[in-house]
Amino acid sequence: MSNIRHALNVKREEDFAKWYQEVISAADLAEESGVRGCMVIKPWGYGIWERIQRLMDDRIKQAGVQNTYFPIFIPLANFEREAAHVEGFAKEMAVVTHHRLIADGKGGLIPDPEAKLEEPLVVRPTSETIIGDAMSRWVQSWRDLPLMLNQWANVVRWEMRTRMFLRTSEFLWQEGHTAHATREDALEETHRALEMYRACVEEDLALPVIAGEKPENERFPGADETWSIEAMMQDGKALQAGTSHYLGTNFAQAANIQYQDREGTQQHCHTTSWGTSTRLVGGLVMTHGDDDGLRVPPRVAPHQVIILPILRDKPEDDALLAYCEDLRAGLAKHQALGEPVRVLLDKMPGKASAKRWDWVRKGAPIILEVGPRDMENGKVAAIRRDTLWNTESGKLATEFVSRDVFVSGIGQLLEDIQDSLFREASDRRDANITRGVTEWKDVVQFYKSNGKYPGWVEVQWSKPTGSALEKVVEQLKAEKLTIRNVPRGSEPADGVCIFTGEKAVERILVARAY
Amino acid sequence: MSNIRHALNVKREEDFAKWYQEVISAADLAEESGVRGCMVIKPWGYGIWERIQRLMDDRIKQAGVQNTYFPIFIPLANFEREAAHVEGFAKEMAVVTHHRLIADGKGGLIPDPEAKLEEPLVVRPTSETIIGDAMSRWVQSWRDLPLMLNQWANVVRWEMRTRMFLRTSEFLWQEGHTAHATREDALEETHRALEMYRACVEEDLALPVIAGEKPENERFPGADETWSIEAMMQDGKALQAGTSHYLGTNFAQAANIQYQDREGTQQHCHTTSWGTSTRLVGGLVMTHGDDDGLRVPPRVAPHQVIILPILRDKPEDDALLAYCEDLRAGLAKHQALGEPVRVLLDKMPGKASAKRWDWVRKGAPIILEVGPRDMENGKVAAIRRDTLWNTESGKLATEFVSRDVFVSGIGQLLEDIQDSLFREASDRRDANITRGVTEWKDVVQFYKSNGKYPGWVEVQWSKPTGSALEKVVEQLKAEKLTIRNVPRGSEPADGVCIFTGEKAVERILVARAY
């Protein structure tokens, strides 16, 4: 396969981090903005996020959760309350202190000292406290429960080291916040949200994930339980792709969210919160990208089929364009994966071959090239992005098919691509989880000898807490390892704890992570 | 009609401003957040905004404009550049100066003096300058043009006096920004966006508007031309519901947006920008609201039909609920206004009559009440929100119709309601524009004697500029009047200027405004 000339300058196996940046740039997903830690999400990257949003939002609404919008600014007092209430409270946030700019007399502008806010405002890092305030107003009786809210918003956390989509100072996300009468109801919602994330991320983004509970040390500050979905990237590291928290009555006590039960007694609500973010786009790149750029699964591709007319700047172009427009309309009438097929006829100026490679790097699922001869013969030259190369010849695996056959088979073809990307990723993931390791020294040895593609290791443990857990965390940290989660539905433990030597109570996944 | 007992405590004709606040609250659209000038948009209000977004976004994408996302923080330097470049630059904005909170030692938190930003960041009041920076990177050659971008985002302008939806410190909007090779192309886009706004606001929100050019004094700072759509509220005031700006090469020069033309020469782009915001929801309230709350036009109603089962906390409830669920599913299979009908079966606890009035105040287009007897008789009791009362009897104009007839006619019924709301508003608007006034004293007298419902006046003017225009603006201001716009396609002028006595060149609309 050495005769294949890939579209990117960096290969995954050479330098994964550099390759990642290269894909972000070559697929035209995003770029640095010049504002510290903030990125510009470009049309193709934002189009993917919009698709994720729409599919996730349908699932959110389906569950009866209602969208709302809360202010971006949160009063300092809310954080003072939370800081008193919650250990491990993070304080790196953007603080607004002034409400006016004024000329500095030297041609520049400065914050107007006369316009200093009495109380600084914080740009929301998350909306738990301000939504908690609203819940305390909106919930009076058991009749108001459950109260299930969601918000699509931008949030800001002042990050010291940023990486596009994975960790940026500003990012886009959705945050679900729900209040319930009982622990059981709140736990049910915690699991419903987790399962919704699993389904959306696996079915729509084609990212296989493992859902499970986070250990105590990885819980969201203030949560009684934190659950996550974990995806394996192509460098064998884990990416936390979504979290769902059962908050007990902790936040309800801090924000005074109470209801009168059927017997007339005041009770604190049990609350949950759950979130996913633009980080998912980073996970998509690190799972489906290859040495030619990104491969976007059809369900989240802004355009699923690109039609590239081979134009020659001649009068004949008009007939070819009309033919392509007709092809576009024919395809758009079909359904794939439950929606009308999304087709783009790319009429932008430029050479067809250059445009073809642009779309290869962007990862459009199917690229159709149509020249005058194809038009005459009623054929199309189809490139399937997930199987780009003929590995024997080292050439593009372009298929020449009759237009009618292609059009009538489009739904099935896009489904195949969606399935195949998922299967490829889950086969790789499954092949790189090592089970049955019972000695700590073997874990250490495993990661020493599998430096480039470490994968994950499943071990059994006794679920220590407090200082015993801290010791385990330190032991893992020395090898750059973390506990990802306790996979839902895994086999019961039957051995001894790899850390403490005590009887094991459950199985955990250990991995390097983003 | 004095025997009608309306659902609100305040009537429009008694106190329009108070009535407006009452509708916002009674229809559960939004509430004060406790953060200065910022509101919480509640599920019903946000649902309406989401519908507006989706319908507008479809139109935006249809035109080939691409969505993107730019950082919320803008460096001070961008504003310094703009302040030097643009007169009338507004400086009331939220300024971020610190990136960390720290304990003050007295149980509170303060901005950490150690974490002061070297250069303060501004929370975007609009994204012209940061998008201009990106355009200067993205545009190189004529082949890159037109570049048409849009962003859905939150923006912040530090407003001293705020009113929900109409003027809040933080609001949600979309901002389109486009770059073109020629003046003609940019002007065409300016008008395309204006026409898109007119169509969306009239067809989707059922708000009749007058599209036209703003006079020089009302232009966006830095624009060569500003166009607007203006809607008339029920108090006869004007609401600017959307603007579209032709920016000439002014912003391109400031941000260095240049392209190489086909002859190899560097040229500055001609740019446009256009925006609409959550203000539209305020316009919806002030146009379609009545003394019973809001009336939401079907196209933008989150739920178009509400089914209220009359439950009795008895075993028979199960059969009724099953019947209602069947009714819901039957309605949802139908199409109205080009989309599947949106039906909610409201199973929340509570008395059906109380819930009916909640939905009346919220303005759901159709409310169906279904009791055990209706189930037996195969009937529904239908309330049409736009014609709520039987004015003769003073009772609700509930219609008892056979279920089958109702279900099969749902598409037509929702279309009728959409049309009827638009017609009602445009008839009122047309009846309240006074034409043919030629003397300034008559304008003054007109507004003196029509205090409660002033309406608009069309006059002719000579289109003065500079200090002559300033004089006109002052003269109008003394009567609390402004020039709204020069209506597109109005009759040519044929008289003398009402201000200067010179020969008139065009007709303008004069009004009090939000």
Can you offer a commentary on this structure?
The structure is a homodimer of 514-residue chains. With 514 residues, chain A is an alpha+beta fold. Chain A folds into three domains: 16-96 and 124-288, Bira Bifunctional Protein, Domain 2 (BirA Bifunctional Protein, domain 2), CATH 3.30.930.10; 303-416, Rossmann fold; 432-511, C-terminal domain of ProRS (Translation Initiation Factor IF3), CATH 3.30.110.30. Helices cover 34% and strands 26% of the residues of chain A. Chain A has 14 helices and 30 strands. In chain A, strands 3-9-10-16-13-12-11-29 form an eight-stranded mixed β-sheet, sandwiched between helices. In chain A, helix 2 runs antiparallel to helix 5 (183-204). Chain A is globular, with a radius of gyration of 26 Å. Chains A and B meet through strand 2, helix 2, strand 3, strand 4 and helix 3 of A and strand 2, helix 2, strand 3, strand 4 and helix 3 of B. Strand 5 (95-98) of chain A pairs antiparallel with strand 5 (95-98) of chain B, so a sheet runs across the interface. Chains A, B: It comes from Erythrobacter ani. Chains A, B: GO terms for molecular function: proline-tRNA ligase activity. Chains A, B: Belongs to the class-II aminoacyl-tRNA synthetase family. ProS type 3 subfamily.
Observed structural traits:
homodimer, about 525 residues, Translation Initiation Factor IF3, alpha+beta, Rossmann fold, 3 domains, 8-stranded mixed β-sheet, 5-stranded mixed β-sheet, BirA Bifunctional Protein, domain 2
List the helices and strands and how they pair.
2 copies of one chain form a homodimer.
Chain A: H1 16-26, E1 30-32, E2 39-41, H2 43-62, E3 66-67, E4 73-75, H3 76-85, E5 95-98, E6 101-103, E7 109-111, E8 116-123, H4 128-138, E9 147-156, E10 170-180, H5 183-204, E11 209-213, E12 225-232, E13 238-246, H6 250-255, E14 258-260, E15 266-268, E16 270-277, H7 279-288, E17 305-309, H8 317-332, E18 335-336, E19 339-340, E20 343-345, H9 352-362, E21 366-370, H10 372-377, E22 379-384, E23 389-390, E24 395-396, E25 399-402, H11 403-408, H12 410-431, E26 433-434, H13 440-449, E27 456-461, H14 466-477, E28 482-483, E29 486-487, E30 506-511
Helix pairs in contact in A: 2-5
